[in-house]
Amino acid sequence: MDPVGIIIWLVLGALAGFLAGKIMNSSGSLLTNIIVGIIGAFIGGVIFSALGVSAGGGLIGSIITAVCGSVVLLFLLGMFTKGKKKVSG
Fold it and tell me: Which of its termini does the chain have fewer beta carbons within 10 Å around, N or C?
């Protein structure tokens, strides 16, 4: 992949992670948003493919897919982290 493609990939990941964070009322750093967005894009692609659904092609479809997958990822992470209590010591 060329450097411009990698930069676009990272920007789309950051945007998807940021939008998913706003939807799920959570916040994260730029790096966290990129990671959530990239993993979310994969999850969204798997879910949409399994359901036979398409968000359309191109940039907008990619963002929609990534945001939906990122929301699912943040929801699942929230389920695992809300029950844990901080241990001081």
Answer: C
